[in-house]
Amino acid sequence: MPKKTKILLALLFLLIPVLVLANGNGDYIPLENPLQYDTIPELLAALTRFLIQVGLALVTFMIVLGGAFYMFGGINPDNVKKGKNIITWTVVGIMIALFAYAVLAVVQFVLS
After folding, report:
1. Is residue 21 part of a domain?
2. Do the Cβ atoms of 49 and 104 come closer than 8 Å?
3. The domain containing residue 46 runs over which residues?
């Protein structure tokens, strides 16, 4: 990137606060919260709930997939082993996720 472009971008970033305050009467322009959550802990709790729900849907899919590999793996013994591994590691993964959720709930309870 040429040096003149870098200088121009730096000046532009330095002038952004001036442009935001340039509404004529010197008052600040109010910024509205686009989210329905007012605090960061509320936002993190909602994000955690969403990720747990997505994870549970993914767990369901993976257990069905592992069951299909296990059920139709009679032709190829490697598929039976693959199905068992998918189910085993899916259960391990959901246990870790639920344990992390429980730890988060305990920490939030202690801190609030």
Report:
1. no
2. no
3. 35-111
Task: Quickly state the pLDDT bin for 19 (edges 50, 70, 90).
Answer: low
Give the pLDDT mean for 3-28. Answer: 72
What DSSP string describes 16-39? HHHHHT-SSSSPPPP----SS-SS
pTM recorded for the entire structure: 0.61
User: Total structural domains in the chain?
Assistant: 1
Q: What is the CA radius of gyration of the chain?
A: 26
Asked, for residue 4, whether it belongs to a domain, the answer is no
- Does residue 13 lie within any of the structural domains? no
Q: In angstroms, how far is the first alpha carbon of the chain from the final one?
A: 49
DSSP label at residue 75: S
- Angle, CA 9 vertex, CA 6 and CA 15 arms, to 5°: 140
